[in-house]
Predict the 3D structure of the following.
Amino acid sequence: MPITGAIFLLGVNSALSETKFFKTEKHNVTVEVIASNLNHPWGLAFLPDGSFLVTERGGTLNLISPKGKLKKIAGVPKVWAKGQGGLLDVAVDTAFAQNSTIYLTYSQSSDDGKKAGTALARAELSLLGKPKLRNVKVIFSQGNKTGSGVHFGSRIVLAPDNKLFITVGDRGDRRRAQDPFDHAGSTIRIYRDGSVPSDNPFADGKRGLPEIWSVGHRNPQGAIWNPVTNSLWTIAHGAKGGDEVNHPEAGKNYGWPVISYGRNYGGSKIGEGTHKPGMEQPVYFWDPS
């Protein structure tokens, strides 16, 4: 079975090239470049008309037509573009045709500009004339911002019940991932207006922050809503090895940094091993990765 258009974006210093064909063990893949010369493209989401939105980490949001015509979108929130931080994921509301709503994650600066944390904003995308964002509103802002430039997580997943999930990395401070009163190293579950569902595991705030869904994650930057299991699935970067697929469930602890299948970059052991009571095992892991 052929797969067409598997890759269509290229970064800086790349040029449009001819269509290429690849044969894998199970499929023939056709690769067609639609747009090029993007600077650290990070997130991508399709609009109902077949055009798509692409974020560039430096803070640019692009509207690209199916034929590759690119327009920059005005009104994007100011981002803290340092290290791995900047403008990150983008998602299109399932009712976009009615409400014109999109969602963006980005590294949000502290007031003094020295620290940052992951934030989620919703906005209305106006396509009349020059494209621009209107009514931008931050609906999630990570607490305890730091000067670290790594591990922002930031993937957005829209659930079919008017809720959404955001992944948040440990911000380079691994111990934070074990604190349910800290957003770092967690998955977040909120309604699309930013309010907290009453059935969240820590909704009453007594055992953790109300918006937290699960803890113990290093830097989850892959995430989808799985229609087969009807639930969230994530992929997290390990350190040296230990990349893992997880199926985050309410209130559960996925172990980082107490348990891991990876090792520190210098080769030393991470935490206590690979298993511990009360901590979940990954669905799958890569070691080496």
Summary: Helices lie at 96-99. The mean pLDDT is 94.
